[in-house]
Design a protein that fits this description.
heterodimer, A: about 550 residues, alpha+beta, 6-stranded antiparallel beta sheet, 5-stranded antiparallel beta sheet, 13 strands, B: about 750 residues, Thrombin, subunit H, 4-stranded antiparallel beta sheet, about 40% helix
Chain lengths: ~550, ~750
């Protein structure tokens, strides 16, 4: 025993344990996010049961085991000292007030999973659970009983189609008219600021305005017709306490019967839900629906950032490595640049807000957008400033990586090129840079993966919880650098911590987190793969 | 091929030119990019610097004052001044040249004379004249701004909020020797001292329909208190109309509670030295603090402090002893806790109470000063001296709130029981005293970093040692990248999991976590011991360097059993609820989102950084050192601690520094995993607020160029400098180490 202790073997085991612990933490974290994030979209069975004196319908959302003494405070007593509780999502927030309830598992009686129980995802008030009674058209019953389900699906398809048309008109047609009206208003304001009272110009603006308003009226008329058509159908359904509720089909996104689904149906449904998650707009204060605007915002911001950061980082690296005199100053600069990567990201956010938004932005507004003042155009957080701030944040990564790539290129290659009479610029451009390009690529990928996950600075320079319009759309000038945007990371923070209904939004947060983690891990693996390939290549060159 | 042909020469020239262009453009580009990057530091400094610039004053104009003013003031835009005289004259004049704009005579009832004068809260622009028949006239100086032809014109006039008729304060018609008035909402109180030394209170309540100047007021409350043996020299009524302070000629202050039906003298105490007189008495904005100026030129700040018996005792908070002549007049700023004091020598002092700062002293006139007023925006001073001259001074004093003691020292804030470190920046109104102590935030930052490092250092450094030296190469090629990938994990995800997943679990399984800390090393050692004593035949089948993999099921088992034993232990030792037990038995407060959660989450965030660099340091220790040690008969562990760790320790140190830098500046994890309360308590079960989270929370709301905004920049700068410093040390150490290795 004493010898064993003296040999240091126990210590080795303890160090081994800390590696195990780290690995378990990594794997556990990823597993946790993946299970919670991906599991949410699988259709869960809907339970019907008696509970005390009431009748319940809902999904079991979560479960936990708590001490009976904790529940004693609320006047409950139990035989055992530990109690299992279910978190039951009963939905129907409009009817019952709250849609989540913690209930004692043992007291569920007559548990069953009836096949014709229906779940409706609605545009507002969250999910609805109940039995379909009838389908109505303009208040008259069209179909009842068993046949009603098929009728409902048919009519729901029609309603969804009309809904799509309405969205199309509202978003692109009316949106573009409003944008033109805003332009006219700015034109008029410009005339006012110039003290230009030319009645001809004013009249021209007025005629254009009248024409636009007429067009808008035409679309409004069309919209009214569509709305009328969409609101034609409704359904009635019985909920758990026996009440009958009337739901217009226009408010329904999906209606499905999870207990009746076969495995194939479920897989199909799962695929559809994932697609919806990736491609749809959020609903209900971001706790339902998709995250498309957040994905889009993140991607656009990262692309803008890459466009800014790549030339800056590469030029700085080439200067430092190829042209600067390698003295103490260059060494100091190199260390300083390296250290900038360790400066807290929030500091960059503070700088971005103060310098880009309040200083540069408001000057731009005064020079170029004075007609829109006092409403700021660039003098407010927006996607351009966010990209610039993140470019500044990630430029050390690109510089360090590019320099590393440059220093790995064997001397023999440069000397060969110079000996053949090439100038320094030609050597750089024709031989060195192409060979260093994978290193630049690595740097860029690492920069992107850092930028995609960074949230703190963005909160100051442009991210919002709900952006009314995307940074790229069909209205000139198509790319709107002044707009605020949504971001995956901020979405996680916002829905998880700032939303009114955290419980309802939680699965979506996990799903968003999974997406973000997946993207970042893939990017990092790509960077590692490129780096390893690069090493092999240079090894081959050096030995050759 | 002719290398000297014209064409070849031209081509060569062109190539050389291109080379030069490339050289210069790259150099220019590179240098300007590097300058742009360093701009961050300088821009932060540029925003922060005004906080520490001294204030300045400059003389604008001087003009004569034909009347004998008893009160002067200026309006918001600094265009007009107003002077009230003892003869009930109100003179509005231009602050540019002293030209009289308009003059009003206040309607005083016939056969009466003015015996006293009062100024309500300066922001209301209301004054009152007390008369010798127990009545008073209330007057408001008002300014109407119009823009004829886009030029601003300010038209002054006077209003009578209580009607032109004098209102009765003392029903017994005694002369009012001292008067004060306060208006708040519908409630208006006049307090007066009568000629026979009685305190008289009259409250008028505004009736429902109140149109224009002639108001309908109802006298709702009346009371009288006889004041024996007090020779009152100053009378002050607070804005809430609950407290009266009387200063007398003996240097004493009497503190009277008028919030109940019958006024009650709470306290009477001497506030100046013997043989010193009170020469000025004013409320600081908010009407909580009293400013007492005395004949020695000292100014003291007093406010009621609650003692153990729940009595409010008027207490001296701080003193300002920079002037030497008797203080004649004190004017307080409307929107900050600053004030100006004028003395008999013509000197003016600019002060800030919270920062305990004498911002500046300036002699504005050779004569004694009679009256001083500071404009509503605190950027203009109007001084009336004994030579019948007005002096107008410009005052540039943007950030008086900042002093070393305000940022880093204990400050006695208004209504607090003792000096304290407090961060509370949000202000709902002008009366709020902003509390800008950076100490709780710096403390929170260090606390979070400390607990994170407590968790990260052992795991990361031990892990690095094992991975670099003992682990089988095949396993290492998987383990290292997987831990490094965690460095790229967005912290918002760690914060989210910590706040929403880990925090509730930890609250429910607190004993389980502590048992895990205890059991884990013990079980691992037991397992190691068993492995050691296994028969050789089995032992040889397990190749060395795979201990980590063998431990996976063991550790999972320990985690599972610790957490399933959590509840029984909780029942056995902690009455079934450890958080409650902590609070009730040990008196330790427990928050669900606490420093422990932050420590774990942030520990996880910095482990990869420390691990990766420490592993590099250990791994690159030259092989011949270890081989030599092993050849001399040392065991692998002895080699490890005697040779490798010693050689690699600078590298490990720099890894820890880098981790520390990251923990200090991390924002999202602390933002999400703590309650963000800026408290000063090292308790692991309570929350905290860090500098970085504070910036994230408050920056979007901070008004540009305000003191608050600049202080947030200052905390950004502090973070920048701090992390830059740590990283530089780490970097320098690493470079040294690399050189040392290459020489070994």
């Amino acid at each position: 025993m004493k010898n064993w202790w003296k040999s240091g073997d126990p210590w080795i085991w303890l160090t081994a344990a800390s590696v195990t612990l780290s690995i378990l933490a990594v794997v556990g974290l990823l597993f946790l996010i993946a299970v919670n994030g991906l599991g949410h979209f699988w259709p869960k069975p809907v339970l019907e049961a008696d509970y005390e004196s009431s009748h319940l319908i809902g999904e079991i959302y979560d479960q936990e085991t708590v001490a009976a003494s904790q529940l004693a405070a609320s006047g409950l007593t139990f035989d055992s000292d530990r109690v299992t509780r279910y978190l039951l999502k009963t939905g129907n927030r409009d009817l019952f007030g709250s849609d989540f309830h913690w209930l004692i598992a043992d007291q569920f009686k007559n548990k069953q999973y009836p096949k014709d129980l229906m779940v409706i995802e609605r545009r507002e008030w969250g999910n609805f659970y109940g039995y379909l009674v009838a389908v109505k058209e303009n208040g008259k019953v069209i179909s009842e009983g068993k046949a009603a389900w098929n009728e409902l699906q048919k009519r729901l398809k029609r309603t969804l189609k009309i809904y799509g048309w309405i969205r199309e008109i509202e978003k692109s047609k009316i949106g573009s008219i409003n944008a033109s009206l805003e332009d006219l208003r700015l034109d008029k304001r410009r005339l006012e600021l110039d003290h230009d009272n030319d009645p001809k110009k004013l009249a021209a603006i007025e005629t254009q305005k009248a024409a636009l308003l007429a067009r808008s009226e035409k679309f409004n008329k069309k919209l009214r017709q569509l709305y009328f058509a969409m609101n034609r159908d409704s359904l009635t359904a019985k909920v758990m306490d026996g009440r009958v509720a009337d739901i217009p089909l226009a408010k329904i996104v999906h209606a499905y019967r999870p207990n009746a689904m076969s495995l194939m149906d479920k897989i199909q449904f799962y695929g559809m839900k994932i697609w919806e998650f990736l491609s749809d707009d959020p609903r209900e204060a971001n706790t339902e629906g998709g995250i498309f605007p957040a994905i889009f915002g993140t991607v656009i911001m990262v692309i803008l950032m890459s466009i800014i950061v790549t030339p800056i980082g590469v030029i700085a690296a080439i200067y430092l490595h190829e042209y600067a005199k390698q003295g103490w100053l260059t060494r100091t600069i190199r260390i300083a640049v390296n250290n900038l990567a360790g400066v807290p990201s929030i500091v960059y956010g503070v700088f971005g807000l103060g310098f880009f938004v309040y200083f540069v932005g408001s000057n731009i507004d005064e020079w170029f957008f004075s007609t829109a003042l006092p409403a700021p155009t660039f003098g407010t957080p927006g996607i351009l400033w966010a990209s610039l701030t993140l470019a500044l944040l990630t430029v050390p990564v690109v510089i360090v990586s590019t320099e590393e790539g440059l220093s790995r290129i064997p001397r023999s290659i440069r000397e060969g090129s110079l000996a053949l009479g090439a100038t320094k610029a030609e050597t750089l451009w024709r031989t060195v840079l192409p060979m260093a390009s994978p290193a630049m690529m690595t740097g860029l990928i690492l920069a992107i993966s850092r930028a995609a996950g960074e949230v703190a600075p963005l909160m100051l320079v442009g991210v919002v919880k709900l952006a009314p319009s995307l940074a790229i759309d069909a209205q000139a000038p198509f790319l709107h650098l002044d707009r605020q945007f949504m971001h995956l990371g901020f979405h996680i923070y916002d829905v998880g911590f700032q939303s009114p209904n955290v419980e309802a939004g939680r699965p979506l947060v996990y799903a968003t987190a999974f997406l973000l983690v997946a993207v970042i891990i893939i990017l990092n693996l790509a960077a590692i793969w490129i780096r390893n390939n690069l090493r092999e290549k240079y090894k081959a060159l050096e030995t050759a | 091929m002719n290398t000297n042909s014209q064409k070849a020469k031209r081509r060569r020239k062109w190539r050389m030119l291109k080379d030069q262009i490339a050289k210069y453009s790259m150099t220019l580009g590179g240098i300007s990019i590097i300058i742009a990057i360093t701009l961050i530091f300088f821009y932060l400094l540029y925003v922060v610097l005004p906080l520490f610039l001294p204030a300045s004053m400059n003389h604008i104009v001087q003009f004569s004052n034909p009347d004998s003013s008893i009160y002067i003031a200026s309006e918001e835009k600094n265009e007009l001044g107003v002077s009230f005289t003892n003869d009930a004259d109100v003179v509005f004049f231009s602050l540019k040249d002293g030209k009289v704009i308009s003059k009003y005579k206040i309607a005083i009832p016939d056969d009466t004379s003015i015996t006293s004068f009062a100024v309500a809260d300066p922001a209301t622009d209301i004054v009152a004249f007390g008369l010798n028949d127990g009545r008073a006239v209330v007057v408001k100086h008002d300014y109407k701004i119009t823009y004829p032809n886009d030029v601003r014109v300010i038209t002054p006039h006077i209003k009578y909020p209580f009607g032109k008729e004098a209102i009765v304060v003392d029903e017994k018609q005694r002369a009012l020797t001292h008067l004060d008035i306060q208006l708040k909402g519908a409630k208006n109180t006049l307090a007066a001292i009568t000629a026979d030394n009685n305190l008289v209170l009259a409250t008028f309540t505004k009736k429902e329909s109140f149109l224009g100047e002639s108001g309908d007021f109802e006298r709702t409350y009346n009371s009288v208190l006889a004041l024996p043996s007090i020779y009152v020299s100053y009378l002050l009524l607070d804005k809430e109309q609950k407290i009266i302070y009387l200063a007398d000629q003996n240097g004493q202050i009497t503190h009277i509670d008028i919030s109940t039906k019958t006024p009650k003298i709470l306290q009477r105490l001497r506030v100046v030295d013997v043989n010193t007189k009170i020469t000025a008495l004013e409320f600081l904005t908010g009407d909580i603090s009293l400013l007492v100026g005395d004949s020695k030129g000292h100014i003291t700040q007093w406010f009621p402090v609650r003692d153990k018996n729940n009595n409010h005792i008027l207490t001296k908070i701080r003193e300002f002893n920079d002037q030497s002549a008797p203080i004649i007049s004190i004017a307080t700023e409307e929107r900050r806790k600053g004030f100006v004091a004028a003395d008999n020598n013509g000197q003016v002092g600019i002060y800030h109470s919270t920062a305990h700062r004498t911002v500046m002293l300036e002699k504005v006139t050779d004569a004694g000063i009679k009256n001083i007023s500071i404009s509503p925006r605190a950027n203009r001073l109007l001084v009336a001296d004994n030579n019948n001259q007005f002096h107008v001074w410009n005052l540039d004093n943007k950030h008086p709130e900042i002093s070393w003691s305000a940022l880093w020292g204990k400050v006695w804030y208004e209504s607090y029981e003792s000096p304290d470190y407090v961060w509370q920046s949000s202000s709902a109104n002008n009366d709020f005293e902003p509390k800008f102590s950076l100490v709780p935030l710096a403390f929170g930052t260090l606390k979070a970093a400390f607990y994170a490092m407590l968790i990260a250092i052992p795991i990361a450094v031990f892990g690095a040692i094992y991975t670099a030296y003992f682990m089988a190469p095949k396993m290492r090629s998987i383990v290292k990248p997987s831990i490094e990938i965690m460095a790229a994990l967005p912290t918002v995800i760690l914060g989210f999991l910590a706040g929403l997943w880990l925090a509730p679990i930890m609250e429910k399984n607190l004993p389980g976590f502590f048992m895990l800390l205890l059991l884990l090393p013990i079980i691992v050692l037991v397992f190691a011991f068993i492995m050691h004593h296994l028969p050789k035949s089995i032992k040889h089948k397990i190749s060395t360097g795979w201990q980590s993999a063998l431990l996976i099921p063991i550790i999972l088992l320990v985690i599972w059993s610790a957490f399933s034993l959590s509840y029984p232990v909780e029942v056995w030792l902690f009455d079934g609820n450890m958080p409650n037990w902590l609070t009730n038995t040990l008196g330790v407060d427990f928050d669900q989102r606490n420093a422990l959660i932050v420590g774990i989450a942030m520990g996880l965030a910095v482990i990869p950084n420390i691990f990766s660099m420490a592993e590099d340091a250990v791994f690159s220790v030259p092989k011949h050192l270890t081989i030599g040690s092993l050849a001399l008969g040392a065991t692998p562990w002895q080699t490890m601690i005697r040779v490798i760790i010693l050689t690699a320790s600078p590298g490990i140190f720099s890894a820890i520094m880098i981790g520390m830098g990251r923990a200090v500046g991390e924002t999202m994890i602390v933002l999400m995993a703590t309650g963000n309360t800026p408290i000063m308590d090292f308790n692991i079960f309570e929350g905290l607020r860090t500098l970085s989270a504070n910036i994230a929370v408050e920056m979007p709301e901070a008004e540009v160029a305000s003191t608050h905004y600049r202080i947030l920049f200052l905390s950004g700068l502090v973070l920048f400098v701090f992390t830059f410093f740590f990283n530089t040390i780490a970097e320098v150490v690493r470079h040294r180490l690399r050189r040392k290795y290459s020489s070994l």
